[in-house]
Structure formats: structure tokens, C-alpha cells
Recover the amino acids of this structure.
């Protein structure tokens, strides 16, 4: 524990405590997990995925590949939180990842012994013998990052959709300049910053802007932005976008359930997300203590953390000297600055800084490289050598190696939805270009690294964004600034190493991809960067190639002997950094996973023992608990009651489409296999739709309300689909031709009253006014009237085989009417009983309308013969629809009258026991017949009376069945028409 | 039927309003041919206000209008339109009507849709909020929302479950 208070731009003096891997540490409010641990002398913070090599912090932002923590206590944990971005809170519990049983002693780290055998592609070639499944469990246990949360009891994220004129992503110098210029011009501006505070590089760079120190300028600018109404979202990262809408994710590190998702639709979008520093590959460049130079500067400026006592800096540009000066002035000993360039490459300012450093005792080596880092669990030595003579090595004792190989502009956001890249020679990096209208890069994201140019670029982008949004105010003067000089970078990607050393020159730290892997991949014939990525896992994982992507491409280019610009980088995809799963789910969590449609009787069902289940989005009652201990018994009891006396079922979920207009009848004629135009007013007809390809789409009853008005009912699960089908033809072939389509599904509650006593019960419930109507209503006729002062339609139709009536009533009276029927002695039944009644009668259940059955298959030949030229009719003449082995719907019963068989069972003949000739589509136990009965789709070659084997080895076993008529009960329909 | 307060607090108030007969009018052509009916909200998203100043006739989707609890004037307008070129369907029971008010009403809706974009250049729109089909209208004291009645319970629950940061 560090006993002294640190000073940093983000720290307060308030102390806090937290635990890491079970040990308690002390930090300060404002600290991140990484800064507090570094300040406490902790070097190792994680292990790599593949070889389980011990790793420390490399970066200070979301590009950090090594220090990923699991926050919280199992099962309520958040895995893979970037330690450098995890703002500490008192009492926080942190755990390192990819190790067992501890970070220091990890069993799987023994894999390092055999790492020579585990190169790229090892998995693909090795674990196929004797079977992948033999290895799967072990590999899955070793793979992956972190621990998955075991609970979802967190509140949903806060989601907010909004618009603005100019969205600026990144609140560094360019972003602040852009936001200020746009806001001054009068635009409505939103500024997103991934860090908890704004400023970016200005937090530590030697800079003055508009005559003030950089941080003072940042503070003043934020005050001005607030006064101009700019919305500043900190801790918020732009992670992706599509269709002009951008998604920003706010996740204050490690606080469960505190995440927010912003969906922002700007007129103009300025990408000022800066640049990511890249490492240089050298042997053992993954030892704890090897860190990016910029990260060390950030830890110092923000949190007062000195990342080491004796530093070696290794770089290929001028800025290393300014950084060394800052680090030295903070009290760290800069042992050496190792610069791969020769003296002629240095600018004047760097030359002067170098001289000052040398006077202070820093060894400044030009034309040198760090060949290797050495030490046990962390860096203790740097081995350096002149590039001209790499074998002439010398050792510099140190505890940290800070490396900087230049910067790669954050091209991620600029490469989505149409952006491409251009290679920037001066940076040896790719910059996003060809941006869609209204989107542009600014500052370092645009390839600019000198502060004056960054500010000009940012202000210009902000002004253009404001103008695009119609804001024509004065954007004000462009800020004048001075800062670190141009980097004068000379591209350098890896230090010299022999083949053995290349295995420890790491490119992608998280996935342990090294130079030897790239070489092996090329030798395997994978040349393209996208193939190399997939073969090696380069750029996989949470850092998504931010650290190793460009470095890997450059080394691949070197190995291929081609320029980097020709190799390119792999495609970048959203999200920009890891997003917690609950944010991806948004509000669709738990009960809100999908909408649930309720009928007017929903609450009644729940309150009266109804067991509900989803059907499409609807909730429907499967059975009522008071009728049996489980669905099987209750369904039988309910079905029996309907056959003997009667019952009621909630049919409100039936789709109902009102088709109106002078051409309504002919419109319906065009959509159904049989004609609606022949239906008389006050009558209805069972009708069948076809898809365009001739397959049956749906069936239902069509009621003719008036000459120019119909209601077409659909099955419950097809309501939305049928409406779309109708609307498609209404809006295309029938556009402007005197017909309209309106969904009235919820306008009518439907109660089906079925059973031999249904008419009697309705007499008592509906009253005397309805008596003559009920007595004279013939099958498929309906009458319209009122009940309780509200509209009521009584349709005589049956899907149970019994005398039955459908009551179509307004939702406001549905419950009252239902309860009146209950009071009159009828009890409700559910879908289980309904299925029993339907299958007994040979009516279609949903499994027969599976999109693969023609009207001929379903024994609807009579409807086809009517010759109505409807949608799909022409294709019914296809020869394939009439082949002898097409299926046809038949009834099926157990040969012995006792065996049980289920829907889905395969039917075979004795001659061809391994080749099904059909399958059972539906089956029920018929209480009326005292045996299992069903429907089946069977080859037409099998005649009624044929005996087949019914094969269901997994669920119930095999039995023998006999093909019968579809209609198992009341084949003449006397009960229904009584 | 009385108005029922479903949610109150946290800067929002969601009240279910009583709703009577509701009509939907659909035109055969879009845009409607000729002069159609005088005073008709012909532009998509236009709203004709009733005699009490409330939304009376909403052009919520192309060629499709909603007349919730129509006053005599609106009913006459719809009848005249039906004579001209379309059909009127009584959809009573299809929609449930809610008034969303309070200082954070807009923030509630922003959890589901970009209200500004949705209502840009129009007064009403048919949209999906919290996966529920709705018609949204901005009124002087907040918003009026018609929700498909089979989804209404889910809609209320979704609003109740929202986490609205300060």
C-alpha cells in the first residue's frame, strides 16, 4: 500500500479501499483499478488466453489487452472490464482473469512449456482426432475471457434516443474545438467522451492554447460549452452506428446496472476519437513492466502514478524526448532513451531535449533498438543493440520499458457504413476516408498529430457540421496553440530476432499472436490479412486489433516483402469496444423479452386457474387447473364436457380483417381458393388461402356483413402474416381499385360456445330478443345485434364437431358475457381440449399448415375444382404436385386400439422399414373413442386401411397403425348441424 | 368510464383516458383524389382537432385516419369522406388511449423512439414503442398515445420498468 497521497488531474484526497484477488488495497477517489494497483506496486494483472503468460498493464485506455478484471462477487459479476478505465469505488471487489487457482500460480501456464507446438492453426489440425467432442470440454474450459455472470437481476439499461445537429465523438483537443465552433455557430451539439473527464492528450502534453495552459483552456472551453447548451456525455463511448443513427454506450466502470445506451441521430458527425499508440515487437515485449509510453504519461498526469523507478524508453519518433523530459521531471530515473533513428532524423526541439536529458544522466542511444526485455515475473533488464550490429548487445538495468512505435488514427468509426482508408506515409498508418455525407474525421483521427493543426481541423469540422445543420452563426476564431512538435516518425515495427526469438515477439497480446505465428501462417498459404486474422486470431478479443492490428499488418507486409499500404488492415466492425450484454439487450430483458398480447379475458383466465402459454405473441389458455392435475387429464375432462353438455373457449386471438369497398368481394375472390362473392349477406364460408407458390397459407371463415363489406378471420398464429398478405395485394394489384383492408382483431372479443346444450345456454344468457335468431340460425349463418348495449355478432360455426356458436363482441363486454355463460352453467376449456375436439373431427391443426402442403395434400380437391383463379392457383397444376408419392392427409389409429403414438412419429412400410412414407402430424387421446387418434401426411400410394409401422424410438417406442378416414367422430356431421 | 392513472411520479404521469367509439377511415387512393373533403387533414401526419381542441382526426399512416371518440363534426367529416372515396370501419376496442404528461414525459418516449425525428414535420405518427404498436400525438400538455389494446398492459409495464437517470 502506498502511504502517501498522490496528485493527479483526476484524483481527490479521499481514500478508498478495494480488493484484488482477495487482497485489500488502498486507492484514492478518482483512481482507476490499474492506477491504484500500479501505485501499490502490483505489476501482474492478468494472463493471456492461449499460453497463460503473466501480463501487466500495457495501455491506459480501452485498447488495454491484458489487464481485464472481473468486477463483483459471483454470480453477480461483470467480466472483462478494462482495468485502466475502471474507476474505483470504495469496497469494490476485483478479480484477475484467465488463471487457476491464482494469478501467480496458474496450472494452465504449463502450456508455455509446449508453446512451441501450439502455433497458429494448431487447434484446427490437432483436435480432430479421434473426435472434436473428446477435446471440446477441456478447450472450452480454457478458452474465453472472464467469468459469465450467473444472474440477470440487474435493472435494464437506460436507453435514450435523440437528435442533434452535430455529434462530436471524442473530447480531446480536436473534439473540443469542433464542439465549440459548432455550438458558437448556433448548432445543437452533443459531445461524447469515453473518459470520465475531457481533454485527451492535453492532460499531459506541453501545450498552450489561446495563451493559456492546455488544461486551463479545457476547463474554460467546457464552461463555454455548458453555457451554449452543449450536452457533454462522459464515460460514454461511441461504439457503432447504422443508418445515420449512432450508438453511444455509457458504462461507469464496474457499476452493475448503471449502463446507458444513447441512440443519437445527428445531422453532422465529427469523429475526433484520437489515435492509438502502437507498440514495437521485441523479444519478451509482453513482460509485466513493458508499457506504452503514452500510458505511462497518462498514469502520471492523471493519477500521479510513477510506473517505475528506472525507465528505458524505446521509440522511433521525436516525441519520446518530450515524454522523457516530463517523466524525469516527475522524479523517475530515465536510464536510457533508445531511438532507432540516427541523429539526422531528429528535429531541433527533440535535439535540444535530448541534449538536456543527456546532461541529466540519461543515455540517449541513436540507431539502437531494444532487442529483448528480461526478468522473471517482470522487467529487470533491457537488452539493447545497435541496429547496424544487432548481435552487439548490452544490458541496461531497469524495471520498466516504455515503448512507442507511433500512432494509428482511430479509424474504427470512420470505416463503418461506407468508409475506406488511405495510407498516410508520415504516420505509417491508415486514415479513414470516403466518409458519407455529413461525417468527417478531425484531429488525430484524421492523421494530424501537431496541436495547432489538430485544433484548426477540429474547428473546421465543427463549423462545417453546423453549416450542414443550417446553423449560420459565427464559429469564432480558430484557437491558436503551441504543443509537442511533429513526431518525425520513421516506421519501425520489430527489433531484430532469430527464428526462436520471433516466438516471443508478441503482436497481439490478448491472443498470444507472435511474429513466428505470422510467418507460419504465410507458409501455410494464408496471405490475405483477413485470412491471417482468422487463422491466427490476430485482432480478436476485446481490443479488436487496436494494439496489434496495424503492427500485425506491417510485419505481415515485411514477411511478404510488400509495402504496408498494399497489405491493408482487416475490416473493423462495431462495437468499438466491449459492450455489456445487458446494453445489447436493451429493454428486452426478462418479462420484456418480447411483447405479450393479451385478450380481454386474460386476467380472468389467470384468476381462474388458466394455464397460459404463448402462441405467436398471444397468450392462450392451454387448460384450467381445476379440471385436472396436468394438461393431459385436464384436456380430456374439458373435451368430454364439451361433447356431453358444452363449454366455452376464448377465441379472441383469431385474426380479423375487415375488407370493405365496392370491390371487396372480387378482391377476396382473388386471394382465396373459393369465392367470397358468392357468400350471401348474413352468411359465412370456410375459405382457404394459397401462397403464390400454391402451398396452403391459412384457412378461416369469411363473413359477409354487407354487399361491400366482409370480415375475414384467420388462424391466431397467422393474423399478422395474413394482414401483410392482404395489404401487399391491396397496395399493389388492387391499389386505388375500391377496396380497403383494416385489422379489427382487437375490436372483437370472441367466445366460442360449443356443445349440445349451447343453444339452450345462449337462450338464457342473451335473453328473449335473441331467441328467435338462435332458433333459426343455420350452419354458417350469423346475426348481428347487441348485448349490454354493445355490438354483438352471433355466428353459427363449429370447429369442434358439436353444435357451436361464435360470439363476436366488443372487448368492453367480453368479460361480462363470458361470466354470464359461466353463470349459466358452461365451463371454460383450453387449447388442449380444442385440439382433441378438432383431431377427433378431422379438422386441421396448425401442424398440417406447415408451408409445404398443397390443397390436394390436405384433401381440399373440391375447393380447387371450383376453378377460382386466385393467387397461387396457376401453380397448382405443376406436375410435381400430382406425383404419386406426394403426401395426403389421412386419419390414423393404433392397430390394436391401445397403443400411444405422438405427432412427429415416422410411418414406414414393412417393405421399406428405413424409408418413411409419411409422418403423424397430430395425435390426441380421444375420450369419446377411448383410444389415440391422429392425422398424418402419408404418401398417396398408401390406401386407406393400410397398416404401417409408426416409429418413435426416442419418445414412446414403435407401434403399428392403420390409415383411416380423417374424420374419426360423427362423419356425417349430424351433431354439428343439429 | 373514468380516467385511470396508471403511473404517477418520477416526473411522469401516465393516465388512461376513457375512449368510446373509434373509427378508422381508409382512402382508396393516396393522396386522395381531387379536393376530397374540405377541412380534411390530408397531409400524412396531420391532425384535425375537435371542438374541444383535442386530437379528433389523425392521419396516422398514408391513406389511413383515426377518429377516436369522434364528435359530431368529425363524424360528419368522416361520413362525407366515405361518400367521396374510402371506407370507414368501426374499430371500437382496438385502441386504448393514454395521456402522458409531466416534465419527463419526453424522456420516457425517448427510451423507445427518437420523438423529434418521428414527429418532425408532422403532428402524429404510427410507431412502435417498447415493441407495442402505437399512434403518437404531441399535445400541449404532453403526449397522447393510442396503443393497440392487446399490447396495452405490456406498454404500461414497459414504462413502469424504465430506469430514467437524472
Amino acid at each position: 500500500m502506498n502511504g502517501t497521497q498522490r496528485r493527479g488531474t483526476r484524483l481527490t484526497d479521499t481514500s478508498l479501499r478495494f480488493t484484488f484477488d482477495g487482497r485489500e488495497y488502498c486507492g484514492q477517489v478518482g483512481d482507476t483499478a490499474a492506477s491504484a494497483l500500479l501505485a501499490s506496486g502490483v505489476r501482474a494483472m492478468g494472463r493471456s488466453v492461449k499460453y497463460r503468460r503473466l501480463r501487466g498493464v500495457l495501455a491506459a485506455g480501452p485498447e488495454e489487452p491484458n489487464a481485464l478484471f472481473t468486477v463483483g462477487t459471483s454470480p453477480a459479476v461483470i467480466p472483462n472490464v478494462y482495468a485502466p478505465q475502471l474507476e474505483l469505488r470504495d469496497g469494490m471487489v476485483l478479480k484477475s482473469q484467465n488463471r487457476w487457482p491464482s494469478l501467480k500460480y496458474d496450472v494452465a501456464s504449463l502450456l508455455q512449456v509446449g508453446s512451441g507446438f501450439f502455433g497458429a492453426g494448431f487447434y484446427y489440425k490437432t483436435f480432430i482426432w479421434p473426435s472434436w467432442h473428446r477435446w471440446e470440454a477441456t478447450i472450452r474450459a480454457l478458452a474465453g475471457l472472464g467469468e459469465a455472470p450467473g444472474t440477470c437481476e440487474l435493472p435494464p439499461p437506460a436507453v435514450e434516443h435523440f437528435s442533434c445537429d452535430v455529434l462530436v465523438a471524442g473530447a480531446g483537443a480536436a473534439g473540443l474545438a469542433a464542439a465549440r465552433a459548432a455550438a458558437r455557430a448556433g448548432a445543437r451539439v452533443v459531445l461524447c467522451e469515453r473518459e470520465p473527464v475531457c481533454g485527451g492528450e492535453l492532460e499531459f502534453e506541453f501545450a498552450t492554447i489561446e495563451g493559456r495552459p492546455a488544461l486551463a483552456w479545457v476547463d474554460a472551453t467546457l464552461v463555454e460549452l455548458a453555457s451554449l447548451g452543449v450536452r457533454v456525455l462522459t464515460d460514454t463511448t461511441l461504439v457503432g452506428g447504422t443508418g445515420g443513427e449512432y450508438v453511444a454506450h455509457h458504462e461507469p466502470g464496474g457499476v452493475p446496472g448503471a449502463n446507458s445506451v444513447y441512440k443519437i441521430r445527428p445531422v453532422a458527425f465529427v469523429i475526433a476519437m484520437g489515435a492509438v499508440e502502437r507498440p514495437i515487437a521485441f523479444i519478451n515485449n509482453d513482460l509485466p513492466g513493458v508499457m506504452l509510453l503514452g500510458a505511462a504519461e497518462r498514469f502520471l498526469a492523471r493519477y500521479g502514478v510513477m510506473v517505475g523507478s528506472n525507465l528505458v524508453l524505446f521509440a522511433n519518433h521525436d516525441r519520446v524526448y518530450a515524454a522523457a523530459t516530463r517523466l524525469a521531471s516527475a522524479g523517475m530515473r530515465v536510464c536510457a532513451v533508445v531511438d532507432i533513428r540516427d541523429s539526422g532524423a531528429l528535429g531541433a526541439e527533440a535535439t535540444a531535449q535530448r541534449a538536456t536529458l543527456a546532461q541529466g544522466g540519461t543515455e540517449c542511444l541513436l540507431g539502437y533498438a531494444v532487442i529483448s526485455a528480461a526478468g522473471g515475473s517482470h522487467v529487470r533488464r533491457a537488452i539493447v543493440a545497435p541496429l547496424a550490429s544487432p548481435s552487439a548487445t548490452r544490458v541496461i538495468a531497469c524495471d520498466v520499458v516504455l515503448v512507442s512505435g507511433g500512432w494509428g488514427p482511430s479509424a474504427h468509426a470512420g470505416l463503418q457504413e461506407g468508409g475506406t482508408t488511405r495510407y498516410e506515409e508520415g504516420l505509417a498508418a491508415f486514415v479513414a476516408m470516403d466518409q458519407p455525407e455529413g461525417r468527417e474525421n478531425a484531429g488525430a483521427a484524421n492523421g494530424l498529430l501537431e496541436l495547432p493543426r489538430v485544433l484548426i481541423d477540429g474547428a473546421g469540422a465543427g463549423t462545417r457540421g453546423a453549416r450542414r445543420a443550417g446553423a449560420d452563426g459565427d464559429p469564432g476564431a480558430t484557437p491558436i496553440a503551441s504543443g509537442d512538435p511533429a513526431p518525425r516518425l520513421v516506421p519501425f515495427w520489430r527489433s531484430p530476432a532469430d527464428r526462436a526469438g520471433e516466438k516471443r515477439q508478441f503482436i497481439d497480446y490478448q491472443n498470444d499472436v507472435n511474429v513466428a505465428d505470422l510467418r507460419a501462417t504465410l507458409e501455410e498459404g494464408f496471405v490475405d490479412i483477413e485470412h491471417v486474422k482468422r487463422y491466427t486470431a490476430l485482432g480478436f478479443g476485446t481490443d479488436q486489433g487496436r494494439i496489434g492490428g496495424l503492427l500485425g499488418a506491417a510485419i505481415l507486409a515485411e514477411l511478404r516483402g510488400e509495402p504496408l499500404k498494399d497489405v491493408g488492415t482487416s475490416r473493423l466492425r462495431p462495437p468499438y469496444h466491449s459492450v455489456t450484454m445487458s446494453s445489447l439487450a436493451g429493454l428486452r430483458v426478462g418479462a420484456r423479452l418480447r411483447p405479450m398480447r393479451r385478450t380481454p379475458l386474460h386476467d380472468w383466465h389467470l384468476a381462474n386457474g388458466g394455464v397460459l402459454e404463448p402462441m405467436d405473441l398471444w397468450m392462450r389458455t392451454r387448460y384450467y387447473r381445476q379440471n385436472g392435475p396436468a394438461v393431459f387429464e385436464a384436456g380430456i375432462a374439458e373435451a368430454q364436457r364439451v361433447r356431453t353438455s358444452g363449454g366455452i373457449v376464448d377465441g379472441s386471438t383469431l385474426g380479423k380483417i375487415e375488407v370493405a369497398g365496392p370491390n371487396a368481394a372480387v378482391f377476396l375472390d382473388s386471394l382465396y381458393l373459393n369465392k367470397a362473392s358468392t357468400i350471401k349477406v348474413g352468411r359465412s364460408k370456410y375459405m382457404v388461402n394459397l401462397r403464390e407458390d400454391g402451398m396452403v397459407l391459412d384457412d378461416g371463415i369469411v363473413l359477409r356483413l354487407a354487399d361491400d363489406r366482409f370480415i375475414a378471420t384467420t388462424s391466431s398464429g397467422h393474423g399478422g402474416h395474413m394482414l401483410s398478405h392482404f395489404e401487399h395485394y391491396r397496395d399493389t394489384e388492387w391499389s386505388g381499385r375500391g377496396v380497403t383492408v383494416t385489422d379489427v382483431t382487437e375490436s372483437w372479443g370472441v367466445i366460442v360456445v360449443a356443445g349440445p346444450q349451447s343453444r339452450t345456454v345462449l337462450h338464457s344468457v342473451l335473453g328473449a330478443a335473441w331467441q328467435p335468431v338462435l332458433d333459426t340460425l343455420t350452419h354458417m349463418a350469423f346475426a348481428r345485434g347487441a348485448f349490454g348495449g354493445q355490438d354483438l355478432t352471433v355466428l353459427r360455426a363449429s370447429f369442434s364437431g358439436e353444435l357451436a356458436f361464435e360470439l363476436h363482441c366488443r372487448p368492453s363486454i367480453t368479460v361480462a358475457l363470458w361470466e354470464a355463460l359461466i353463470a349459466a352453467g358452461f365451463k371454460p376449456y383450453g387449447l388442449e381440449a380444442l385440439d382433441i375436439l378438432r383431431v377427433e373431427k378431422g379438422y386441421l391443426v396448425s401442424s398440417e399448415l406447415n408451408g409445404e402442403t398443397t390443397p390436394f395434400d390436405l384433401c381440399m380437391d373440391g375447393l380447387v375444382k371450383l376453378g377460382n383463379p386466385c393467387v397461387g392457383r396457376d401453380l397448382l397444376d405443376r406436375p410435381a404436385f400430382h406425383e404419386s408419392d406426394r403426401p395426403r392427409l389421412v386419419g390414423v389409429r393404433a392397430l390394436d386400439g391401445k397403443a400411444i403414438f405422438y405427432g412427429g412419429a415416422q410411418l414406414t412400410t414393412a417393405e421399406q422399414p428405413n424409408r418413411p412414407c409419411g409422418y403423424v402430424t397430430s395425435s390426441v387421446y380421444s375420450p369419446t373413442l377411448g383410444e389415440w387418434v391422429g392425422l398424418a401426411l402419408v404418401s398417396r400410394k398408401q390406401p386407406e386401411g393400410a397398416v404401417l409401422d409408426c416409429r418413435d424410438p426416442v419418445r414412446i417406442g414403435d407401434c403399428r397403425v392403420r390409415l383411416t378416414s380423417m374424420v374419426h367422430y360423427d362423419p356425417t356431421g349430424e351433431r354439428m348441424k343439429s | 368510464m373514468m380516467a385511470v392513472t396508471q403511473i404517477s411520479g418520477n416526473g411522469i404521469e401516465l393516465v388512461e383516458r376513457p375512449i368510446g367509439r373509434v373509427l378508422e377511415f381508409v382512402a382508396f387512393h393516396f393522396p386522395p383524389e381531387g379536393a376530397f373533403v374540405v377541412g380534411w387533414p390530408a397531409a400524412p401526419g396531420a391532425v384535425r382537432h375537435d371542438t374541444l381542441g383535442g386530437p379528433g382526426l389523425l392521419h396516422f399512416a398514408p391513406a389511413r385516419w383515426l377518429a377516436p371518440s369522434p364528435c359530431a363534426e368529425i363524424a360528419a367529416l368522416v361520413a362525407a369522406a366515405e361518400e367521396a372515396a374510402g371506407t370507414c370501419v368501426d374499430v371500437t376496442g382496438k385502441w386504448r388511449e393514454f395521456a402522458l404528461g409531466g416534465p419527463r414525459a419526453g424522456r420516457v418516449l425517448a427510451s423507445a423512439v427518437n420523438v423529434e425525428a418521428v414527429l418532425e414535420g408532422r403532428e402524429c405518427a404510427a410507431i412502435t414503442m417498447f415493441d407495442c404498436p402505437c399512434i403518437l400525438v404531441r399535445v400541449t400538455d404532453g403526449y397522447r398515445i393510442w396503443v393497440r389494446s392487446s399490447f396495452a398492459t405490456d406498454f404500461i409495464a414497459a414504462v413502469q420498468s424504465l430506469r430514467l437517470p437524472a
Q: What stands out?
A: The CA atoms of residues 56 and 74 of chain B lie 7 Å apart. Chain B is about 20% helix and 40% strand. Chain B touches chain A at residues 24, 26-29, 86-87, 89-95, 107, 110-117, 130-132, 148-151, 153-154, 157-158, 161-165 (CB under 8 Å). Helices of chain B lie at 72-85, 105-110, 115-118, 152-161.
